[in-house]
Amino acid sequence: MDAIVESREQQGRQLVEPRARIGLIVPSVNRQSEPQFNHYAPPGLAVHVARARITGQWRKPVAQMHDEIARAAATLADAGPDLIVYHCTDSSMREGLAGERAILDIVQRASGVEAVATSALVIEALRAFAMKSVVIVSPYLSNEVIARYLEENGVAVRGDIALKLTGHEFAAVTPRRWLEATREHARDDVDGYFLSCTNTTQIEAIEDIELALGKPVVNSNQAVLWGSLRRLAEKLGEIAPVQNLGRLMRL
After folding, report:
1. 107 and 229 assigned to the same domain
2. By CB atoms within 10 Å of each CB, which of 1, 22, 192, 233 scores lowest?
């Protein structure tokens, strides 16, 4: 019995008290963001997740999703996060900058917490690389929404690869397949590649793609983790660089 108690105490001592917390509002079907953020987040950053029916069969204009978004934001606020991210690429980009502002207004009013959207953090990441032209690679049926938002923000889309998948098929695509799909559509006339979607294994392919193509890669989950760490730097203090997530984490 003493050995069991001692073992539990040792395990408890390995837990790190969070210095900062983020809350993610993710689509209810998302299987990838939560484990990826908990895997890659540095010690000292706690990650809390709320699910909302905001994509697929539940997709509606932002104004009609007000109550669903507000509910998720309010439940996250109960955990005391320092930052809330509306974490869905398609949903946050679908109605352009005006729609993004409307979403963040709902989140902030419901939670009283600083909020940012995946859409904005992707643009921040692209600008950090001074990317003015990209190839989009996604699991979607169409990249029209993503391309329109990027172009609204001054980023030219010169390649558009959509794997035309639905539902849980997104998460079934392997990192190797993301590497292959991107490499098959490599272009010399772009500044880099945007791997769009929060519910994929794309994040695990970033470094291999950068190595293969010699250009920077931005992915939705990677950009959100990077942007969150920047915003919470004062609370987190000095942390070791996040490994295996490409050039962005070294900027």
Report:
1. yes
2. 1
